[in-house]
Amino acid sequence: MTEDTLTDLYTIPSAEQLDLRRASIISTDSTDERHDHFPPSFGLLFDIDGVLMRGSTPIKEAFEAMDLLKGRNGKLRVPIAFVTNACGDIKSKSEQLSSIFKIDASLLKCSPQIHLSRKLNSILFLEPEQVIFAPSPFQSFTNWHDKRVLVVGQGDMKKIAEGLGFKYVYTMEQVAEAWPLLDMVNHENRKIVVTIVLMGEPTQWETYLQLLIDLLLTNGKPDHKPETSPENHLPVLACNMDLLYMGQACMPRFGHGAFLVCLESLYERVSGYPLKYTALVGKPSEITYRFSEHTLSKTAKRLGISRPLRKIYFFGDNPEVDILGANLYNMYLRRYRRLSGGRELSFPEQGKLDKKAAVASSRTVPADAAFLPQTARSVECRFLLSPPPPPPLLIILHIHLNNLLLDLGNFK
C-alpha cells in the first residue's frame, strides 16, 4: 500500500472540500434510474457502535444515511452489511436495526448541512446474515463443529455457538459443576472439552481466568496436576481483539481484547510459554473482511445484481481496528491476485490459495470455507471520529453513494 493511499484512508474531507463536492449530489430518483441500467459493482460495510449508534441510542444522521441506500420501492440499491466486534444473536440484531431505521419523517430533523429531494422511505429490511458479529466467521470453521468446545462470553453462549454450527457446546458453568462429579476411573475418564472458543469477555473475569489457565495447563483435565508446564495447550479460537470500545459512557470501556491480554499475560507468567491462538477472527483479522466480502456478494445476488463486487467501502470509527483491518485486507488481496494471476478460481483452488496468501496461520481462511469467489480488488475505509466532530456521516455517505452510482464505469 502506498503512502498516498494510507494518507487518504486516514483523511477526512475538509469543510471546503465538502462544500465543493456537494454540488455533485444528484437526486436519488435519478440514481434509482441509473441503478436499473448500471448495477453497482461495490458494497458498503458499516461498523455499528460509534458510527450508527452509541450504545442503544441511534446517531441522528444515521437515519437519513441509511435511507439513502433504499430505492423508491424500499429495496436496497447497493449490497450492505454491518460488521461489529460485538457478540450476540444475529436475528435479534437484524430485527433491532430494521426496527430502529423504520423512519418516521415527522420525527426527524433533517441535517442542516444537507437537504434531501425526496421523502424518507419507510423501513430498511435486513436479512440476519447481513449482521456480522465478531464470531460470525466461525460458521466456516467446519473442522471444529464436531468437537467438544468450551465457549466463553456473555449471554446465551450455547445458543449462539450452536447457531454458528458447533454441535457439542459446554459453558464454564457446566465445567465447574461437572468436574467434582467426574469418576476418573470409568469410561468418563476423558476430557470434557478439546477446544476453547473465546467469543467475548465474561462478567466474572477472575473466575474465568483461573479456570481457563487450569484447563490450558492440564490439557483439559484440571484435576490432574502436570509435572511440568506443557509447551502446547488446547486449541484456542478467539474473536474480537478490541482493547476498548465506545458505549454510552463518556470514556471507552474495556473490551474482549483486554480480557485476552490478561489471559495471555497470566498464561505466559505461569507456564513460561506464550499463549498460541489457533484462530483469531473479528476485526481487524483478514478472515472477517473475507467473510464480509462473501456476505456482500450473497446480498448482491439476492438483490439481483449480476456484476461482481470490485470495491468495498467500510465506514468505521476506530483506526486501530477498522483502518488497520482495511489495510491488512488490501495487502491480502494483492497477494491473492498475484498468486492467482488474476484468474477466478474454483472452490478447492480458493482454499489452497487463501492459505498461501495469509500472513499468519491464526488468520488463515479455512481451506474448506464455502465462500463465493473472491472478486474485490480493494477495500477503502472511511474514518468517522469524534471529537472533534467530523463531517456528518450523512454528507460523506450521500456524496460517495451518488458519485459512485454515477461513476460505475470506474469499477469494471
UniProtKB/TrEMBL annotation:
<dbReference type="GO" id="GO:0046474">
    <property type="term" value="P:glycerophospholipid biosynthetic process"/>
</dbReference>
<dbReference type="GO" id="GO:0005739">
    <property type="term" value="C:mitochondrion"/>
</dbReference>
<dbReference type="InterPro" id="IPR050324">
    <property type="entry name" value="CDP-alcohol_PTase-I"/>
</dbReference>
<dbReference type="InterPro" id="IPR036412">
    <property type="entry name" value="HAD-like_sf"/>
</dbReference>
<dbReference type="InterPro" id="IPR006357">
    <property type="entry name" value="HAD-SF_hydro_IIA"/>
</dbReference>
<dbReference type="Pfam" id="PF13344">
    <property type="entry name" value="Hydrolase_6"/>
</dbReference>
<dbReference type="InterPro" id="IPR023214">
    <property type="entry name" value="HAD_sf"/>
</dbReference>
<dbReference type="InterPro" id="IPR006353">
    <property type="entry name" value="HAD-SF_hydro_IIA_CECR5"/>
</dbReference>
<protein>
    <submittedName>
        <fullName>Haloacid dehalogenase-like hydrolase domain-containing 5</fullName>
    </submittedName>
</protein>
